[in-house]
Design a protein that fits this description.
The chain is an alpha+beta fold. The chain folds into 3 domains: 75 residues, Orthogonal Bundle (Arc Repressor Mutant, subunit A), CATH 1.10.10.10; 158 residues, GAF domain (Beta-Lactamase), CATH 3.30.450; 92 residues, 2-Layer Sandwich (Enolase-like, domain 1). The strands form 3 sheets. A 5-stranded antiparallel beta sheet has the order 7-3-10-9-8, with helices on both faces. Strands 4-5-6 form a 3-stranded antiparallel beta sheet. It has a two-stranded antiparallel ribbon with strand order 1-2. The protein is elongated and about 90 Å long. Negative regulator of class I heat shock genes (grpE-dnaK-dnaJ and groELS operons). Prevents heat-shock induction of these operons. Keywords: Coiled coil, Repressor, Stress response, Transcription, Transcription regulation.
């Protein structure tokens, strides 16, 4: 079996494969040799085209549906096309201006901003938009308050830099009075506001080792509260999905059983979150075609994502889920640009704090 890559294909095979895929992505129909001969502009005989297509089929890059003599690209062919046969261009200025115009300014919370970005991406591409929410602990702490509840329980009120407020009830080894709680909160707010929870814990531990006796006592109280208040509360990650019903418009996804599996995956979110988490850990664009995602519910779909972040930290990923028959040369730059605009908005929000 021939083992073609984008670079090992000769010029004619590359041109024919590129023409076939472009034609298929445009209309969704199998492409015949006559259409290829007419559209590719190659001065070769139909027999030569058939021979080349037979080699491409043997290599697993194209396939012949049973109902047609024409051919369609396989996921492997689409992967080769995306990796080496298309030339991605930056988003045109007018489209970038549209994204900037339609992405609302930072609302009350980062969650709202991320939801808006996912909805915008869905509206622009007509696919399902997806975005992962960062862990709340990834955002700096703005303010903390401790409220005694009795029986050694304390209500911890955490206000983060993204305006999210999180309440936690913690159980201490022994009761703490209101004055001790106020002293601990004042110390953290004065010296440690602006740091992330993990950094605050590390800072308190370090100072506790170095401090003198009186400060040591205060720090011991603060550290005891911090250990309980800032302990990991699970990953706290989630994924928002927008425009799922857009996928019902695509014939290749219109099978009811197929849609049921896909919508169940959107509802349960576990597998989708795992996939998006992989995308969020590496900068740049990630693309999964068909079974490459590793999740059966997404077979027949392509997932295009790009990571976003703020202040030099990766926080999550945003992208789209659609049929494998999508205009990759347009969708990839749109996803990449939206992730960049989202990062810019988060950086501006962080700077304004």
């Amino acid at each position: 079996m021939p083992d073609f890559t984008g670079h090992s294909l000769d010029a004619r095979a590359r041109r024919l494969l590129r023409t076939l895929i472009a034609q298929y992505l445009a209309d969704g129909e199998p492409v015949g040799s006559r259409t290829l001969a007419r559209s590719s502009g190659l001065e070769v005989s139909p027999a030569t085209i058939r021979n080349i297509m037979a080699d491409l089929e043997e290599a697993g890059l194209v396939a012949s549906p049973h109902t047609s003599a024409g051919r369609v690209p396989t996921p492997r062919g689409l992967r080769l096309f995306v990796d080496s046969l298309i030339e991605l261009q930056p988003l045109p200025e007018e489209e970038m201006a549209r994204l900037k115009r339609e992405l609302p300014p930072p609302p009350a919370t980062v969650r709202d901003l991320l939801g808006n970005a996912s909805s915008l991406l869905s509206a622009v591409t007509h696919f399902a938009g997806v975005v992962t929410l960062p862990r709340q602990a990834d955002f700096p702490l703005r303010h903390i308050d401790f409220v005694p509840l009795g029986e050694a329980r304390v209500l911890v009120i955490l206000v983060f830099s993204d305006n999210q407020v999180q309440n936690r009830i913690v159980q201490l080894p022994h009761a703490a009075d209101a004055r001790e709680l106020e002293q601990a909160a004042n110390y953290i707010n004065m010296h440690l506001a602006g740091l992330r929870l993990d950094d605050i814990r590390a800072h308190l531990l370090r100072e506790l080792r170095e401090a003198g006796s009186e400060l040591n006592r205060l720090l011991a109280n603060a550290m005891e509260l911090a250990a309980a208040s800032f302990a990991p509360q699970g990953q706290g990650e989630d994924v928002l999905v927008s425009g799922q019903t857009n996928l019902m418009a695509y014939a290749e996804l219109a099978d009811l059983e197929r849609l049921r599996e896909l919508f169940e995956a959107f509802q349960k979110k576990n597998e989708l979150l795992q996939l998006m988490d992989v995308c969020a850990k590496a900068p740049g664009v990630r693309l999964f075609i068909g079974e490459e995602s590793g999740f059966a519910a997404l077979d027949g779909c392509s997932v295009v994502t790009a990571s976003y972040g703020a202040q030099g930290r990766l926080l999550g990923a945003i992208g789209v889920i659609g049929p494998t028959r999508m205009a990759y040369e347009r969708v990839i730059p749109v996803v990449q640009a939206t992730a960049g605009l989202l990062s810019d908005a988060l950086n501006r929000a962080a700077t304004a704090q």
